[in-house]
Amino acid sequence: MEVAISSALAPQLFGVSGSLSAQQLVQIYRLMVLSRCVDDREILLKRQQKVFFQISGAGHEALQVGAALALKPGYDWFFPYYRDRALCLALGVTPYDMFLQAVGAATDPASGGRQMPTHWSSRELHIVSTSSSTATQLLHAVGCAEAGRYLSRHPEAAEAVPGDYREFHSLDFHGDEVVLACIGEGSTSQGEFWEAMNTASNQKLPVIFLVEDNGYAISVPVEVNTPGGNISRIVANFPNFHFAEVDGTDPVASLATFQAAAEHCRAGLGPAFVHGHVVRHYSHSFSDDDKNYRSAAERENDALRDPIARMRERLIREGILTEPEIIELEKALEHEAAEAAERALLAPLPEISTIPRHVYSPYLDPTSAAFDHESPGAANAANSASSAVRSQRTMADLINACLHDEMRRDPRIVVYGEDVADASREQALAEVKGKGGVFKLTAGLQTEFGSERVFNSVLAEANIVGRAVGYAVRGMKPVVEIQFFDYIWPAMHQIRNELSVMRWRSNGAWAAPAVMRVPIGGYLTGGAVYHSQSGESIFTHTPGLRVVMPSNSLDANGLLRTAIRCDDPVLFLEHKRLYREPYGRAPYPGPDFSIPFGKAKIVRPGRHITLVTYGALVPRALQAAHQAERQHGIDTEIVDLRTLSPYDWEAIAESVRKTSRVIVAHEDMISWGYGAEIAARIADELFDELDAPVKRIGAMDTFVAYQPILEDAILPQPQNILDALVALKAY
Ligand SMILES: Cc1ncc(C[n+]2csc(CCOP(=O)(O)OP(=O)(O)O)c2C)c(N)n1
Ligand SMILES: [Mg+2]
What we know:
Layout: H1 10-14, H2 22-47, H3 61-70, E1 77-79, H4 85-91, H5 95-103, H6 136-153, E2 179-184, H7 191-202, E3 207-213, E4 216-217, E5 220-221, H8 222-225, H9 231-235, E6 242-247, H10 251-266, E7 272-277, H11 296-304, H12 307-317, H13 323-345, H14 376-383, H15 395-409, E8 413-417, H16 445-449, E9 454-456, H17 461-473, E10 477-481, H18 492-499, H19 502-505, E11 515-520, H20 536-540, E12 546-548, H21 553-565, E13 570-575, E14 601-604, E15 609-613, H22 617-632, E16 636-640, E17 643-645, H23 649-659, E18 662-669, H24 674-685, E19 695-699, H25 708-714, H26 718-730
Parallel strand pairs: 1-2, 2-3, 3-7, 6-7, 8-9, 8-10, 10-11, 11-13, 12-13, 15-16, 15-18, 18-19
Antiparallel strand pairs: 4-5, 12-17, 14-16
Helix pairs in contact: 2-3, 2-4, 2-5, 2-12, 2-13, 3-4, 3-10, 5-13, 6-7, 6-17, 15-21, 17-18, 22-26
Bound molecules: thiamine diphosphate (TPP) and magnesium ion (MG).
């Protein structure tokens, strides 16, 4: 059979192409057996309680070795899942590397002891860090393929630029690179599988989707997850795909299948779907016993399809190796695995002091002076009564202006989301004004920067954020929009388990510094349950994510610039009610105006009470403070936090030391809200400074209702703030 083989091992062992030689077949067998030996040794270590988790690739080896040998590590890109031991071995991960992860060593190259074994990662080999979540990685693969295509068309975007995140992300790309994304058959039930297939198909992306079908998802058989029991039949109508179904216990057939799939992708014809039938030779994991849910006959049948036993027989049958030679080879591999395990058990363990390392970028600190370009000229002009009313720009204007400025400056930025383009059908732009977002925040971006950089996504929030992870790990800067905060939840899995933890879990090897712009909040009169939600504390509770919430035009402009130029993922919350309010308008501050994160602003100095707040409560607090002064002689100091994670503890503490009385006010529900953390910390660290209890103001513990009299009662109003100021002053 004619197959071309290329991999880390290929040049010296296989030559460039030609039929498989005896030596090549032995090398394939070697990789398969080595994978099994590493699994078996790891199982032994688990029994001895020297490692803490085990999940094996046994039964999947032939399919995976076939995939690896058809692709190029360090050139193509890989998004594996936890069963892909033989794949990773064949790509160049060593047994020693694998055991380092199993023991949780400091020198574990995949995660430094942070992730379970078989959660692969290698920058050098282009294996992007994977989580335990099933199917999330497929969307990363799609974003990665999009980024590769973009970079090959715009090589200037790959150039490093000093002074921002681009300095720390070297970009490499190849015009014909392929992305491999692997998944079990049970996990194809996840929405993210379908979302990834959708975009790869529509955009003809060079992604090979590999479904490793072992017939079970833990204890759940394939027919429960897949109607009719065969995923190939269900996906068959996706356009632009190359489809293949293969006996994944046969490495030679598997290799040929991947070779053809890769050719389709490299030629730019679209994605490929390889459905490999394999067996799960052991139970799901060490913690599972399949005797509890599989019949003896079924298990015996699977055992007969063990790819290693089959390949062994084939080598003997074809006269390539004798039985004694096979026994000798297997012994040598067993010894190799045992020796690697022994060495790994002696490896140094991680220092406790290293735990916080790589939660955020160690290269670029968005709280630093490097981001402090809050030009006093611009700020003063904004506050000055003499500035022309016409030059006063809304928050919506200045966010849009910042996006224009930054896209001009940085060719790595792409902007996408639902309805963000001016018009997907470009020909319409000759006669129409363009949509540019439901709030018009992205208006004109597609017209200026083209449809490759500004485009409508599919209507699927996990798709938006998952692809952003893929773009960002390649060093691009996706600035995506989630249309309403109320609909961020389908993306929550990607935000929490992928985007925010990518850097920490890979011990700094990978990062996903994307920006998510999200309109948030109520006070809309009729916004109701699904267009008024807050919930920022759910995100400030996620390590690795920066959370920003400006209250006025200038802050929005300067903070968005910092969000885009920094090296961490940022959730940028834009209050819908403030987009076009007369409050907080300002002249355009120029293309380099930026505000560091974690720097609060005293929007009203005062002596009697500190009011810590942010977002839409800033203008409401100002109104209440004005009345408190006029009617009751209470002098309130208002601290606008501007960024919620990190937040400016020093500014809060300094103000509380001065006033000895404090209220924390926010629009979100009061219980378990953002104010709970701030109030607790004040009570803890500033107890001696206080003359009264720490008070909180927030919404009622319900969703926001449609009928305006209900909405008014649910959300905190200036009158509630005024009442609290008066009560606290009297305490
Ligand atoms: C989102 C998510 N839900 C549930 C789990 C728990 N879980 C881990 S593996 C697994 C079964 C996966 O089956 P399949 O996709 O067929 O892959 P296989 O393990 O058989 O190779 C489940 C339910 C998870 N890791 N992630
Ligand atoms: Mg399965």
